[in-house]
Amino acid sequence: MADDKNQAPSTLQSYVDSATGAVQSAIGSLTGNTGDKAKGEVRKDHAQAEHDASQAALKVPGGTVSSSGGVSKDDPNRTQGSWNQTVGSAKEAVGGLIGNESLKNSGRQQNLEGQQQEAKGQLSDLGSGMANRAQGTLGGAVAGLTGDKAGQEHYDQMRADGKAQQRGVEHDLQKKAEAERKE
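Given the sequence above, the corresponding structure tokens read:
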């Protein structure tokens, strides 16, 4: 659990706290100590809230802001691909409505190209986000060991920005999956 109010929510810390809470609750159950059991359950609940907070991200047009304070701009292919899908779907619908097969086929093709373009941008953002998170984590640890406060802040921001990139892609994929389930 993050006791320091300036510390961003941590997925790893939530896992540690959840496991600790589960052990504490189990020991309380085995020994009949309801206080330990209750404390363990509270710790597990708090860990779940921490986990949920660490996963939070706000998707804004063209980018993502994460709960860790990271900000990322979407790869241009994501934005352009989404636009091509929208225009392609509109062309396809209008072509179908007025009976123009050429317009309908052109729209279908533009929609498919937009899907491929968006996927390419998502893959780029996902890979870049993972690399930035890893580099930020490692660099922050080294900077922390050497006492380089400015370096540590730089790497912490790099990690947070990488997390925002990943969360943005995850948000888009989840939204798309939900839309497909509704169809």
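The first helix runs from residue 11 to 31. Try to locate this feature in the token string yourself.
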